[in-house]
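G., the chain you wanted modeled:
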Amino acid sequence: MANEKLIIKKRGEDGYKNFSIRISNETVQKLDDISKSANLSRNELIQIMLDYAIENCEIK
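Predicted structure as tokens:
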């Protein structure tokens, strides 16, 4: 174990990106309520919702 190195990845090199969005307080509250009920972080919940929306999106 003494030979194992601590690997520190540079920000943005872990396959994820950070960005900001602007949403209503009502939407934040609804997300927080759902995340609490599901025992997920808000970030985890939003990722699940975005993945679902992307896979089930239809453009007409």
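The helical segments are 25-38, 42-55.

Shout if anything looks off.
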